[in-house]
Every structure is written in structure tokens, then in C-alpha cells.
Amino acid sequence: MSKELPGIILMFVLTLALAVPLGKYIARMYSGERSWTDKIFNPVERLFFRLSGIDPHKEMNWKEHMKHMLIINLVWFLSGMLVLMTQQYLPLNPDGNPNMSADLAFNTSISFVVNCNLQHYSGETGLSYLSQLFLMFLQFVSAGTGMAAAALLFNALKTRTTEKLGNFYDYFLKSCTRILLPLSVIVALVLLFNGTPMTFAGKDTITNLQGDTVQVSTGPAAAFIAIKHIGTNGGGFFGANAAHPFENPNYLTNMVLMMAQMIVPFAMIFALGYYLKRKKFAWVVFSVMTIGFLMLVIPNILMETRGNPLSAHMGIDMSKGAMEGKETRFGAAATGFWSIVTTVISTGSVNGMHDSTMPLSGMNELIAMMVNCFYGGCGVGILNFFIFIILAVFISGLMVGRTPEFMGKKIEAREMKIAMIVALLHPLLILAGTALAMALPQYTASTLSNPGFHGFSQALYEYTSSAANNGSGFEGLGDNTPWWNISTGIVLLLSRFLPIIGPVAIAGSLAAKKYTPESAGTLKTDSGTFGLMLFAVIAIVAALSFFPALTLGPIAEFFSLK
Amino acid sequence: MTREHRNELLRSKGISNGERNASLFSGALVATALKQSFIKLNPKSMFRNPVMFTVEIGTLIMLLVCIYIATGAKDQGSFSYNLVVFLILLLTLLFANFAEAIAEARGKAQANSLRKTREETPAKKVELVGEIFMNEVHIVPSSSLRKGDLFICEAGDIIPIDGEIIEGLASIDESAITGESAPVIREAGGDKSSVTGGTKVLSDKIKVKVTTEPGESFLDKMIALVEGASRQKTPNEIALTILLAGFTLVFIIVCTTLKPFADYANTPITIAAFISLFVCLIPTTIGGLLSAIGIAGMDRALRANVITKSGKAVETAGDIDVLLLDKTGTITIGNRKATHFYPSKGIDEQHFLKCTVLSSMADETPEGKSIIELAAIDPATYQVADPHFIKFTAETKSSGINIGTDRIRKGAYDAIRDMVQKAGNTFPEDTLEQIKTISSKGGTPLVVAENDKVLGVIELQDIIKAGIRERFDRLRKMGVKTVMVTGDNPLTAKFIAEKAGVDDYIAEARPEDKMNYIRKEQESGKLVAMMGDGTNDAPALAQADVGVAMNSGTQAAKEAGNMVDLDNDPTKLIEIVEIGKQLLMTRGTLTTFSIANDVAKYFAIVPALFITFIPALQGLNIMRLHSPESAILSAVIFNAVIIPLLIPLALKGVAYKPVGASALLRRNLLIYGLGGVIIPFIGIKLIDLVVSLFL
């Protein structure tokens, strides 16, 4: 433990140190300023735009942005279903994996399009290499979609009055080619050198120490795993996700993969600051998120390294922490840390079983996804956080005696309406989903691997993970049934696109408003006080919505653990 | 001006002090409000307030549960427990209604006391005879007057209704409205032609044209604004209602989904517990007080003797960025006063003084009077034969007196200079220097000449009001920029602006300059407030985001603005801005308080819901409440009583301190946010201690 903690802290600080300049680079890129990467990427992008016939200089209003986003996402979703349901007949299937069932293909295709990657299958047996590659493509474009929406938000918050907010495809393509692709290449190389396979050959056969021959799945994994983290997707190449020795071979890759999922969400915050020339505001946002993150991650590390009292009663050594469901090569502290990183950021890749973490650790993982904006996913983290900014600005604006305004634009009934709908949607999907699952035990009771409070937590986790577009699970839940595939698929769709459209609509409406310059009476949003207010709003809204559900799940389990 | 004086006057008219300066809960008001609290239970009127409407539905369900138990059902707990929950919920509704009703009653009482002064006054109506108006006067009750009618008022008459003088001039005692005892002059034509019902003519006779239909005066409109029926929600109120409705929906989701969750965990929850949890969690505190806060804002404006034409105007006032203030009367006391005499080189001082006094003998302007005052010489001591007074005209820009062949003139520098130079004389160097000095000090030089020869110069100075600088400092801290509007030359304007501490000034202002300034500021996104009285102010008043017309001003000005100040006090704008800020702050702080309360309520109710069937959750009962029933009752009781406890705050408003936005937020967050988390823990625990005695 004494050696584990400094490693985590160093990794976090290093990520932050890299994220600040990356944020500056992203801001310059979205502003259309020249940079040294132009030479490499301009020809590529020009080729793409010439082939597709898209004019990247045609500015769009927010509605056009969203229209194009939805259309292109629909195309991806349908092609995803097509590939998954016909993979048996398509090339690159050396292991001869069968076609996916319709409900599973529906769930899988949606969940990759929406950057969630709730996997109700195992990659080894469920997918051909072509399908894996197509899903890898979806991991790029879904992250790019979120970032393009965030770029629109940045643009909308500039101090001027306009309806023209840049071009969706321009933002989208730049996000993919200039950020996601280069970062993924770096991560993939690290993985490759540490033993992750990158091949199109079929299963390998090895002889183990006992002399048995074992079939081992391989595949083009290194490339896939890189974007899975850079794009905060989280869908594993193999069923065991980042706990699998090929996906995450050693301590070094474990650290690199954690950095990989944090870097873009961190950098987007600073990009906001550089883009709007409000660096202090970016730091306030980052601090609020980090306080929330630390309040979740510190207890988790402590609880996981302290061990399980029930296991201790049975005479099991707890000196290394609660190691059930964890990999010895990572240890309890790093796994506890990962469990929160992957849930605050909507990655959802796991390097240990969340189902086996301590009850309150499990609660913190749930809370991380219920809040869904402490860093958050690629681009969408900022969008989710923006809703809370609007709510906090509204209440605190009133408290200083002015009708509320953010970045010089008045927050009025229309903005509040949209913000409330988006804020409502998250608890609605999670609680109503779980309530339905509980009310219809004929579909769900047999899929819960635990009775009692933990079984309830499993269902709650599944819907929370879907609504947060996270993709991790309290596995043990037998989730490849039509009930889970379809219900979570619907939750995924609603919880992806409405929380993108909502903040974008608010931003679009703010952009079209008159700009009011700041005065001494204006609420300063780049102050610690406002940060505190923001944190309080997030904490209270999340706590208020989910407290009763958490009481019947992890909290009841915790108090029963005597 | 004194409030006592005004109250005395009102008493003499049979209006009690209580009605005018009502304490928060005076007997008659409470009685009306109590009655209204029950009337307002009508679902049709409750529907306007989504938060309280859901409480009403909850209350009805509890009533049904009580009936259900009375018919013999066993699974919902005891009858008395359910009945108590029902009664507390009913009380919650009544408290919320009472808050709104008392605010309405206060506002109405305030407006009525102003209106009473003008009801049923005999009016001397001028009747139409044939095709022309003859001076055939009939005495009719004021209520029968219609817009366009003419009436006559003579010394001693009470003006029956609002109108505009079309003929004559009169001195009028407006103390019934303004509290100011000094009579004012109102005359036909010009900007001081408006008269208000209820005021008294002291001298002379005027002919007045009625400008409003009965029931449509500003005061009537204001009363309608306060009353429920025509009250419109302001934009900010709508946005806040959306927020509160959103929170209510969240808790509908939370409470509905809890049912299958609890069934899964085999912990049946009674309907009373569900409804209590729901009512406690939704923001009933702010929901119950929201409309009272809005009404109280308008009421506070009325207490400051400002009639607002919409609630929105009060709200906007809180956002004002730029304040346009007329110099005269606002920043400086009335008019300029003579402060020094400077004879030119070689002129005998006594002679200069004599000529100065003589030239001002017939000058009725305050400046003229102040010259004689300063000289301290009675003009009558100079025996002058056959004086011929020359009146001031805009062309000559001078006035004076002719005594025999001697021509004494007093006037602006350029006018006298032209006159002197035309006669071939030179303008003395030292006086020229003196004039420059006076101008640079913000004074106005008046040059005196005798027979086209300069005698010397009189210095007139503006007297800046005491304490005005501090008020501007306060405004600056609020983030409001002050702009002085004056007809003075730029040099004088600059000097006074600096001395008074305003941020900017418009010198040599014409009416269209005001308009242009407002437009320019608005284009850069600022909100502008101004005060005006003249007809030529009307476009600017209409253009400004908050336009306050003086009651003495013309009808056009009053129609154009969105507020009317009965006191004709130009510094009133400052008060209005603070009233607007208070209104918004009260909403914000009570919302924060209301939502912060939920933390403690959760810790009271959630363990109570489950403890019976999941004893392990006793660990969550951190307040150590006596039993599930007492916990639930304590939470709903706290939820109910906090509403009446906060009514005084809602009506008075949260105090505004101009300490900067961040400091203000910190302060309010500490008091209402942190306080909102802690207080219910204490309150619920205390109530539980009492409730547990009965269980």
C-alpha cells in the first residue's frame, strides 16, 4: 500500500500536467488557429471533405448541428446492426463466431454508437474481427460526436450574439483526426510493446504448466483498447475487459490506461478555458470536479485496501485488501482508484469486478455515474456539467439580487425548462428502469445473481451505467436476455442524445441573446464561492434523487455487514 | 418631509395609521388573510402554483386514507396517526395560502389608503351646453366623472380625480399623496400640468380635464396587480416556477419508484409515509412563499410611494446597470445660489453691489433671490425713480433694469461680452480670468454691466446634496453606473460630476441626448433606468428599461414610464433598485433554504420508512428520533411551521448589502444554505422530543 499510493498520485499529476497543454492545443484547433499539425492533417481532412462533398466552412445553427449529428449517428447504428447480425458471412472471422441475435445486436450497436459499450457478450466468442474493427470505428466516432457537441458549446459561449455556431463535420472530423487518433496511436504502441496482441490470426494454442493445451483468443486488440480508453468508451476487446492479461498486461499499462481515459476529459475543461479566455473559470470547474472525484475515490481506496470484515472473520488474510475480484498484478489501491476513474468518466472499462467491491465502494461507483459530470465522458462531461452550471447560476444569481446570467447571457424560462428536463431525465431513466425491473420479477428475478440488497444494487447499477453511458456492470447480473438488452438499449438512446441536445439547445439560445457586460453586481462564475455553490447543487441534486434507492441497496448492505 | 406629518394628515381624513403603515400582522389584515387562506384552497387557484397543487392532491389522498381506515382497513396504521398527518398537510396548505393572502391584503390596504383619499369627492363638473362648454358648473360625485370630462377646482377644493390642467394655475397641497407639506405650483401647459385626485387646491382656480376612466388610474392598475385575478407571473418568477416544478417532478419519480423498490425489499410502506416523504421533499417552503415574495416586492415599492405598473418592472430594477439622473433636484439642491461677488479692477465694490442688487430686484428666479440674500441689502433702501425692468429672454440671455438713462444688465458671459464689445468697450482681463476660474470650479458666472461697461461678476454655485456621494458609492458597489444629465456646459458638468461622485455625465443635454445615451448603453447590453417628468422625456422614459415618471409630470410622461413616483423625488431610483434586488435575493435565498432542508428531512424519513423491516438501517437514524411515526410527524410538522415562520422574511425581504456579488453570495450561502442544512436537524429533533411524549 505504501508503494501503491505514490504511484497513483504521480499518475494523476502527470495526467494533469499533460492535459493543460493538450487543452490549449484543442482550443486552438476548434478556434481554427494555425498549428504545426496542420501540415499533417489538412490534406487528410481536405480529402475527406472532397470525397463526401461536405463544405466544412458552412456555418450551422444549433438545430442544424443536431440534425446532422442525429442523421450520421443513425447511419452508424444501422450499419452496426447489419455488421453484427451478418458477421458469420463476412470476412475476418477466423474463429468462426456466429451472427448476433437481433436484440443483442440492437443493444451492442446502440451502446457503441452512444459511447457506452454496455457489453452483454464476450468479445472472444461473440464477435468476428471485422465486427471488432467496426466497433473500434464506432468508438472513434462516438467520442468525436461528443467532442463536436462540446466544441459547439464553446463557440456558443463566446461574447457575441449569433446563431452561426461553426460546422458540425468540421468539429467532428478534427476531433477524430487531430486528437483521438494521435493519442490512440501512442497508447496502442505502449500496449503493443507490453504484450497486447495485434493480429488477424485466429485462436492461439498454448500448452500450460499442467500440460493441457488451451485455446487462447487473440486479435487486433492493441488498436481497439487504445481508443476504448482515449475515447472514454470502455468496451473491452475481451470479455474480462481490462482485467484480461492481454488487454492490460502489467502495472505500467494499467497506469497508462488510466491516464488515457482521463486525459481528454481533463483537457476539454482547459480547452474551454483557453477557448473562451476564461482560464480561471476552467480551473474552478476542474477543482469542483476534482473535489467530487476525490470524495469518491479516497474512501474507495481506503475501503478496498482495508479488506472485508466478513472475509476476515473466516480467517482470510486481509493485509493486501479486499482482493476478491481483483487482479494481484494491480493491487487493491489501484483497482479502487480505477473503479472511480472509470465511473466518473463514462469509460466503464474495468480492471476488477465492481460487483465484488465493498458495499460503499459500490455506492461510490454508483454515485459517480449518477452525478455523471465529475470529468465525464469525451465532450459530454462538459455538456452534463453545463446543466449544473445553469442550475447553480440561476439560484446563486438570484441570491446576489440580479436576474441570473452566465457569460453575459441571461438565463430565462426557456433555458431553465431545458435544463430541468435534462436534469430530470437522468433520475427518471435510472429509477424508472430499476422500478420496472423490480416490479416485473418474471423477467429479472432469475438474472440477479444475488438475493436481497445486493441483487437490487445489481439492477440499479445496470440502469445507472446505461443512463450514464458508462458501460461497466455489477456483473453477476445475467444481462444477455431480451429484457435487459432492450430496456437498457432504450435507456442508452434516450440518455445519450437528449443530454447532448439539451445543453446544445441552451447554448444555442444563449448565443442568440444579447451580451451584457459584467459589472460589480454580476455574479463572478470564476470564483471559489461559485465553485462551492456549484458543488452543493450537484451534491444535493444527486443525493436528493438517489438517496432512497441507495438506502435499499448498498447502504442497507453496508449496515448489514457486521 | 416627515412620515408623521403625512400620517397626521391621513388621520385627519379618517384613515388610520395602521392602514397606511401596517405592522406585519395587524388584526384586520390577518382576519382577511385567514378567510382568503380557505378560499384559496379551491383547486382552480391552487393550480397556478404547481408545488402546492401537488400538496393539495396529497392532502386529498390522506383524507381518503382516513375514510378508508374509518371503514375498517387495518394495513395503514392507526386512524389518529393518519388523521394527524392529514391535518398537518392541510395546515401546510393553509399556511402557504395565508402567506399569499397576507401579502395581498397588505398591498391592497396600502393601495386603498391612497385611493380612499379620492373617493366620492364632490366635483364641480363643467357641463356641455349646446355645442360649446359653458361655465355652467354642476356638483357631481367624483365617481361619475369620465375621461375627457372637465371640472373646476378653486381654493379649498379637493381635486376629485386625476387630470391635466388645461386652464389656469394653482398652488396645491399634495401632502396627502407625497407627505410633503410645502405646496407646489401646477399650471396649464408645460411639464407641471398634472394634478392628482385627493390633493387640495390652496389658491387660485384651475380647469382640469379628466385623463383616466374610473377604475383605470395607475393606482387601480396597481391594486389589480396585487390581487390574484390579474396578477401575471414575471419572467423570473416563471423561470423559478419551472425549477421548482422540476424538483417536484424529481420527487414524484423518487416516491413512485420507491414502491417497487420497497416491495422487492419486503418492506411495505404506508400511504401516509409516502405522502409525507413526498411533501417534505418537494420545495414547499419556497413554493408556498413565492407569490407572497412577488407581491411584497410591489408592496415595498408602494410603501416607498412608487406605483409600479407591473411586477416585471420591479424585477428589472434589480438588474439596472446604468442610472440616468437629472442634476437639478437629484444631485444638487434645487437651484444655483450666489456665493461670491467679484468686482472688476477699478470698480468700487459698493457701486458694484448696488448695481447687482438693483438688477436683481425684479428677478423672481431663485438665483435672483439668492443674489439679494448674499448681498444682504434690501433693494428698497436704494431710492430709485422710475425703474423700468427688463425681463430675461432667451435671445438676450440677460435681464436688468433701466433707471433713467442708466442701463444695468446682468447676464451670461457671452451675452454681456457681445453687448460690451458692440459698444466698443473692452472686456476687462481680470474679470475674464475670474470667469474662467468660476467655470472651472463648476460655478456659473453672471456678469453685471452698467451702460455697456463691465462692473464685475457674480459667482453662482450648485449646492450638492448632503450624503449624495455616499449613495453613489453604494450604487457603484452594486455595479450600477450613475450618469448625471445637465444642461450645464461641459466644464461645469465635469466639475459637479466629480464633486458628486457620478461616473459619467451628459452636458448641455437636450431631450434627444438622453434618448441617444440610453440607446447606446442598451446596444452594449446594459439595462438603463431614468426618471423624468416632462413630455419631452416621454420617449426616453419609454425607451429606458425602467422609466420612473414623477407624479407631478405630464400625463404623457406617466404613460410612457413603467413606474410613477408619488413623491416626485428623483433619488427614489436608488431605492427602487434596492427593492428589485431584495425581491430577487429573497427568492434565491428561500429557494436555497428550501432545498437545503431536504437533507435533514431525508435523514428523518428514510430510516423511518424501512427501520421496522430492515433493523440494520437504524444506523442511518443519526438524529436518534423516537419512532418511525414520530420521525415522520416531526418532519411534516417542521415542513409546515417553517412556512409561517418565514412569512415575515418573505414580506420584508432579505436585506441587501452592497458588498460585491461574491461576498453577497458567500454570506447568503452561509446563512441560507448551511443554515438550511443545519436548522431542520435541530428543529426536527426538538419537535420529535415533543411528539414522542404523545406517542
TrEMBL record, chain A:
Mention one GO molecular function.
potassium ion binding
One Pfam family it belongs to: KdpA
Q: Per the UniProt record, which residue ranges are transmembrane?
A: 6-27, 70-90, 133-154, 175-193, 255-276, 283-302, 366-398, 418-440, 490-512, 532-556
Check the UniProt entry and state the signal peptide residues, or none.
Answer: none
Decide whether keyword Thylakoid is in the record.
no
Gene Ontology cellular-component terms for this entry are: plasma membrane
User: How is the protein disposed in the membrane?
Assistant: Multi-pass membrane protein
| InterPro entries (UniProt xref) | KdpA
Keywords for this entry?
Answer: Cell membrane, Ion transport, Membrane, Potassium, Potassium transport, Transmembrane, Transmembrane helix, Transport
Q: Where in the cell is it found?
A: Cell membrane
Q: State the superkingdom.
A: Bacteria
UniProt family annotation: Belongs to the KdpA family.
Q: Which PANTHER family match?
A: POTASSIUM-TRANSPORTING ATPASE A CHAIN, POTASSIUM-TRANSPORTING ATPASE POTASSIUM-BINDING SUBUNIT
What the protein does comes down to:
Part of the high-affinity ATP-driven potassium transport (or Kdp) system, which catalyzes the hydrolysis of ATP coupled with the electrogenic transport of potassium into the cytoplasm. This subunit binds the extracellular potassium ions and delivers the ions to the membrane domain of KdpB through an intramembrane tunnel.
HAMAP family cross-referenced by the UniProt entry: KdpA (MF_00275)
Subunit composition and interactions:
The system is composed of three essential subunits: KdpA, KdpB and KdpC.
Q: What is this protein called?
A: Potassium-transporting ATPase potassium-binding subunit
Q: Which organism is it from?
A: Taibaiella chishuiensis
> Encoded by which gene?
kdpA
Automatic annotation (TrEMBL), chain B:
Keyword Translocase set for record: yes
As for subcellular location, the record says: Cell membrane; Membrane
Provide an example Pfam family for this protein: Hydrolase
Give the Enzyme Commission number.
Answer: 7.2.2.6
For this protein, what reaction is catalysed? K(+)(out) + ATP + H2O = K(+)(in) + ADP + phosphate + H(+)
- Annotated ranges, domain P-type ATPase A: 136-227
CC annotations in GO: plasma membrane
Residue spans crossing the bilayer:
51-73, 79-99, 238-259, 271-293, 602-620, 632-651, 671-694
Q: Which residues bind ATP?
A: D363, E367, F392, T393, A394, E395, T396, K397, S398, S399, K410
Q: Which InterPro entries match?
A: ATPase_P-typ_cyto_dom_N, ATPase_P-typ_P_site, ATPase_P-typ_TM_dom_sf, ATPase_P-typ_transduc_dom_A_sf, ATPase_P-type_domA, HAD-like_sf, HAD_sf, P-type_ATPase_bsu_IA
- State the family it belongs to: Belongs to the cation transport ATPase (P-type) (TC 3.A.3) family. Type IA subfamily.
NCBIfam families, alphabetized? ATPase_P-type, kdpB
Q: What does this protein do?
A: Part of the high-affinity ATP-driven potassium transport (or Kdp) system, which catalyzes the hydrolysis of ATP coupled with the electrogenic transport of potassium into the cytoplasm. This subunit is responsible for energy coupling to the transport system and for the release of the potassium ions to the cytoplasm.
What is this protein's record name?
A: Potassium-transporting ATPase ATP-binding subunit
Organism listed in the record? Taibaiella chishuiensis
Q: Which gene encodes it?
A: kdpB
